[in-house]
Design a protein that fits this description.
The chain has about 525 residues and is mostly beta strands. It has 1 helix and 40 strands. The strands form 9 sheets. Strands 3, 4, 7, 9, 11 and 12 form a 6-stranded mixed sheet that branches. Strands 13, 14, 17, 19, 21 and 22 form a 6-stranded mixed sheet that branches. Strands 23, 24, 27, 29, 31 and 32 form a 6-stranded mixed sheet that branches. A hairpin with a 2-residue loop joins strand 38 and strand 39. About 30% of the residues are buried.
Length: about 525
């Protein structure tokens, strides 16, 4: 821009003519008319642009971003790149609500605009604008725009486009299992255990200051998982399963990023972007249970125990296959023993959960009346075997009321009646034995037993296969269907009647089942045609 004009020369022969960019003068003969000078001043320029967000992934800005810092540096060597030695800042500003920025009062020169990357955004591109498109030499996507500001130029459209950072979600998973052999390592999966995931804002490993991020339950394999997790610190809490004690908690994850937080049933950890944080496992141990019961004498013939019998040995065996019968391999293993006290009670403690068989050693001078399985769950019916009670001990269970009832074979009269009353139909001795035992309706797998009842004073009848008690029927019943027999096999059964004074002699019957012809193929007689 014009500042002044000065007419020089030795004679200063013309005053200022008042015309911009014009000097009037007179040149005399031989004169060197000098110092006719013009003084100019640069017209200032400006640099402007915009910062916006690409919201639809087309690399074009859609939404303005305010508050972004833009710093303008002098590009001393005009190479379009902000070198380490180029530290001269000619101006800085922040974007307004429309995402726009402007830096004014710039003398003509080479410049580089540098954007401070806004938090939560990734760089998409930079667009050098200006009237001359003069700075294309700057590398792309480095938050820099190079350009030239000419005298008086409004160098605009120097724009930065950003994209919101995409958060890679992670997951948290683990397992709950039972330690069955006391080595503190999980052996058997536990299903249905509730697991709650909490955020951990201050990363202290304590869930009390967090909020619930998810609730899950373990599947049939003991596994649980939480997905779609924003990167951050978390704490997972296990609801202690009933009947079990805590053994350990193991923080896993690919980074093993948190140590033991010292809280039982709790695991702290960090989920990184895209991380599958796994092996966050809980190990439990089943609480031991107990088996209790009573041995008593039926003194009045009603089948119920009346008087305790002390000193009776009860032996508990595992029932590995859960069939309620004492198999040879189970008889060799003793899980515990108990002896009845003066109240007839016995107790066997520290039992791991499982199926058991309580076997009573028949006390001398007594005959068997009944065995009753008790327990909180009444978990097994009578297995039909004398002096044996089957049952299941659950974790932490006190399995009670596993009772044996006996009668005194040497007692002359019932107690507490001081003087017995003679009754022809119920003499003070075992009842007469059944007679005329027969077998009918014999097939390959079944048969029907029948017999005659010779007394009306029995409690019922007991049916033995050899020496093994296999069935009981009530009084006045004189028939029983045998099932599950093997084809073409000889069987011997004994039938006894019994009352509170003991069992009768037996009535014996033997028979052989039919052959099973179901396997034989059909035979056809083919008659040739003439």
């Amino acid at each position: 821009a014009d500042v002044s004009e000065n007419e020089g020369g030795a004679d200063d022969d013309q005053p200022d003519n008042g015309v911009t960019n014009s000097i009037a003068a007179t040149v005399d003969a031989g004169e060197e008319d000098t110092a006719n000078d013009f003084v100019e001043e640069d017209i200032k320029g400006s640099w402007s642009g915009n910062v916006s967000e690409d919201t639809n992934n087309d690399d074009i800005g859609d939404t303005p971003i305010s508050g972004v810092l833009i710093t303008l540096y002098l590009d001393d060597n005009a190479n379009g790149i902000l070198d380490s030695g180029e530290t001269t800042i000619v101006g800085s500003t922040t974007t307004d609500s429309s995402g726009d920025y402007i830096i004014t009062g710039l003398t003509p020169d080479y410049y580089i605009a540098v954007e401070t990357q806004p938090t939560g955004f990734d760089d998409v591109n930079e667009d050098e604008g200006g009237l001359d498109n003069d700075g294309n030499g700057n590398p792309a996507n480095n938050n820099q725009i190079a350009g030239i500001v000419d005298a008086g130029e409004i160098d605009q459209n120097n724009d930065f486009v950003e994209e919101e950072q995409s958060v890679q979600l992670g997951s948290w998973s683990g397992n709950v299992s039972e330690d069955t052999n006391n080595d503190d390592i999980g052996d058997t999966p536990m299903s249905g255990v509730t697991i709650t995931l909490y955020t951990d804002p201050n990363s202290d490993g304590n869930p009390s200051d967090g909020s619930v991020a998810g609730i899950s339950t373990t599947d049939s394999n003991g596994n649980y998982i939480f997905t779609g997790l924003t990167p951050g610190s978390y704490v997972v809490v296990e609801a202690q399963p009933d009947g079990y004690d805590d053994v350990s908690e193991n923080e896993g994850g690919s980074d093993n990023d948190q140590g033991n937080n010292g809280i039982n049933n709790s695991i702290a950890g960090i989920v990184d972007a895209g991380e599958t944080d796994q092996h966050n496992d809980f190990v439990e141990e089943a609480q031991t249970g107990s088996w209790n019961g009573n041995v008593s004498e039926d003194t009045n013939g009603d089948g119920e125990g009346d008087t305790p019998i002390p000193g009776v040995l009860i032996t508990l065996h595992p029932d590995y296959n859960g069939n309620g019968l004492l198999d040879p391999d189970e008889e060799a293993v003793i899980a515990g023993t108990g002896t009845t006290d003066h109240n007839g009670n016995y107790s066997i403690n520290n039992l791991i959960p499982g199926s058991y068989l309580a076997v009573e050693t028949q006390p001398d001078g007594y005959g068997n009346v009944s065995e009753v399985d008790g327990g909180a769950d009444h978990d097994s019916s009578d297995n039909g075997v004398i002096n044996v009670i089957p049952g299941t001990v659950s974790p932490g269970e006190n399995d009670t009321n596993n009772n044996f009832v006996e009668y005194n074979m040497n007692r002359a009269t019932p107690t507490p009646t001081p003087t017995p009353i003679s009754r022809p139909d119920r003499p003070n001795r075992p009842p007469p034995h059944p007679t005329n035992a027969e077998v009918s309706e014999i097939t390959a797998t079944s048969a029907v037993l029948t017999w005659d009842d010779n007394s009306n004073g029995e409690i019922g009848f007991r049916i033995y296969k050899g020496s093994l008690l296999v069935a009981r029927v009530g009084a006045n019943i004189t028939t029983y269907m045998l099932k599950g027999l093997d084809p073409k096999t000889t069987y011997t059964y004994r039938i006894k009647s019994h009352n509170r004074f003991g069992e009768s002699y037996w009535s014996t019957v033997s028979f052989t089942t039919e052959d099973d012809y179901a396997w034989m193929p059909a035979v056809y007689h083919i008659i040739p045609l003439d």
